[in-house]
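JOB MANIFEST
job_type = single_chain_structure
chain_count = 1
residues = 424
[input]
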Amino acid sequence: MNTVAMVGLSHRTAPLALLERVSVPADRRADVLDAVRAAGFSEAVLLVTCSRTEIYAVGPHPRPDRLVDVLAGQAGSAYGTVRRTAEVRVGQAAVTHLLRVTSGLESRIVGEPEIRSQVRGALRDACAAGAAGGRLGELFAAAVRVASQVHEETALGSNARSLACRAVDVALTEATVPGAAVLVVGSGRMALAAVNHLRGLGCRPTVVARDERRAEQLGGAAHSRPLADLVGLMCATDVVICTTSAREPLVTIEGVRRAVSERTVPLTLVDLSVPRNVDPAVAGIDGVRLVDVGGMQDHPGAGPDLSESITRADALVRAAVQRHRDHLAARRAGPLIAAMRQRIEDQCLEAVCQLARTTSSPEELARVARTVAGRLAHPVTMAARAAAASGDDAALLTICGAMDVALTPQLVGLDAAELLPQRS
């Protein structure tokens, strides 16, 4: 039976510098998916965010070490560090982790909504690359469903519980002047969330992006500028929030020095990007405050309302994991159960025919046989489902033998080699 495996790095176990090393740019993600499939997996999805890079894969005999090799291969000279640091999960542990991640329970800001869209996007990209199939498709769909349920039924669905909103709040707290002028660099989802939160607080930010049309859509014609104006704008800006996916820093130490030389008040820089958009060296410049994504950690125990929401979300995720497990078990046990029922029905029909009155029609005899067979098959049907749900292949094989059902790999969801007698 195909099994789900996951390997990855996240903010919980890896420093920001290491997350940067394994972050895969959009134009290279299809190559990583190809490498996973070349490693012996039939399906693969790559999830890349500012807080994590994770590979989910499906194979008949999962070798997580091969997935670790693919992940570590993105890190260059940090290959060995990634191999030692990578998180590895197989089977139900991988399923549970994905559902928790998608629901925001593993995020820097617990419950943040952006991750749900990122998970959708990861599956969409994998499907476009021909790397994802039915098993991961069902799993990722289940993850998105429970994330939607968590956001609808708990306080974790609040729009303010997002990384972009936290960045805005931190930035405005760090700013030393009232009515701070804010510059948002980027034009994606994170930038949109930051702009909307700023407007909700009564602040009209200026948006800078490579895509000038998109920058104008976010900021408006009077509050959007081309990326080439970035350094000049920093001279008159109190807060800069960076949210782009650039591979190299857009805010350089030279640019910041020029901007600060023309300022009389401190400049606050908030960098939400991984890899970082702001050169970390700018933190050493007088008059500059730098906060990167590592400073956006949430503190779930800070309030009883949040703790209650997390408890409820945990319960919803556990229930969703069980539903997914039951669904797979029922589907796996389906052919076996159908074969057993047919065997019982045939035996009942044979017995009924021997005893039936000559006036009984074949249809009537078949109906009686099905009724009797259903009653007789119910206990063994439930046993087969329970064995499939727990992954007890030995019990499934025993049931097949007891019911005199021919053992085939397709019937019990096993490889042919697994049907051979085991040597002691």
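[summary]
Residues 304-355 form the longest helix (52 residues).
The chain has three domains: 3-157, 163-298, 333-419.
exit_status = 0
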